[in-house]
């Protein structure tokens, strides 16, 4: 299962790569706007932190076919040729996915809220499908079920597109998707930390340390 970091914050990326096994970084225009930095130089600094084994996802901003194609080329030519280009699933987006994927671009179809949108994007050559779990849950939908349906459709039609579930707001959503075998998840640094941290584990570690210190002259490691 792939774990991608949903951020454009350099410190968060460095910290998470240091501590965890991260398969890449996903961004979108809102995430990048939050950093308030010049787009191309900032993305180049992020690309430098991502080695060949990891993937960086950068989203187009234009919404019409010609604009999307131009944005995609700019992203690859001016930032890094290894980037996967995120394109929202709209009519214009699908048209762009079709031509860009034929020309060897790695496409991530994003902002997916129905399984049929995912299927259409897979058919247009998208390598990754990014369903928005929390945004679907928020409108009384079932984000987990959306992900499961998309996984099933990829099996039904023998498509190789990977489902990378996104837009998580809690651990339960991630748990449900991973139980159903999702190919990958993209999550914020905070949520990644909460996936690992548990107060009961802290209490156990504290007890181990105290017992050891009492028995071995206040030592806090093995001497
Ligand atoms: C995915 O690639 C998106 O960047 C992201 O997960 C969207 O999440 P949001 O609903 O928190 O904006």
UniProtKB/TrEMBL annotation:
It is found in: Cytoplasm. One of its GO terms (molecular function) is transferase activity. CDD domains: Transaldolase_FSA. Keywords: Cytoplasm, Schiff base, Transferase. InterPro entries: Aldolase_TIM (IPR013785), TAL/FSA (IPR001585), Transaldolase_AS (IPR018225), TSA/FSA_arc/bac (IPR033919). GO terms for cellular component: cytoplasm. The keyword DNA damage does not apply. GO terms for biological process: carbohydrate metabolic process. Its main location: cytoplasm. PANTHER family: TRANSALDOLASE (PTHR10683). This is Fructose-6-phosphate aldolase. It comes from Alkalibaculum sporogenes. The lineage of its organism: Bacteria, Bacillati, Bacillota, Clostridia, Eubacteriales.
């Amino acid at each position: 299962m792939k774990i991608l970091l949903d951020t454009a914050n350099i410190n968060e990326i460095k910290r998470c790569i240091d501590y965890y096994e991260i398969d890449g970084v996903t961004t979108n225009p809102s995430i990048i706007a939050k950093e308030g930095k010049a787009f191309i130089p900032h993305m180049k600094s992020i690309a430098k932190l991502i080695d060949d084994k990891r993937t960086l996802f950068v989203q187009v901003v234009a919404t019409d076919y010609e604009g999307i194609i131009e944005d995609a080329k700019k992203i690859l030519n001016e930032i890094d040729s290894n980037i996967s280009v995120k394109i929202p699933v709209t009519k214009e987006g699908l048209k762009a996915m079709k031509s860009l994927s034929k020309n060897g671009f790695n496409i991530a179809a994003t902002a997916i809220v129905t399984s049929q949108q995912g299927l259409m994007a897979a058919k247009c050559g998208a390598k990754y499908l990014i369903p928005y779990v929390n945004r679907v849950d928020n409108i009384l939908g079932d984000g987990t079920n959306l992900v499961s349906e998309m996984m099933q459709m990829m099996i039904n039609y023998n498509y190789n597109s990977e489902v990378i579930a996104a837009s998580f707001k809690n651990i339960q959503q991630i748990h449900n998707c991973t139980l159903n075998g999702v190919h990958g998840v993209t999550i914020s640094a905070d949520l990644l930390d909460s996936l690992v941290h548990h107060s009961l584990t802290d209490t156990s570690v504290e007890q181990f340390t105290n017992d050891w210190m009492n028995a071995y002259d206040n030592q806090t490691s093995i001497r």
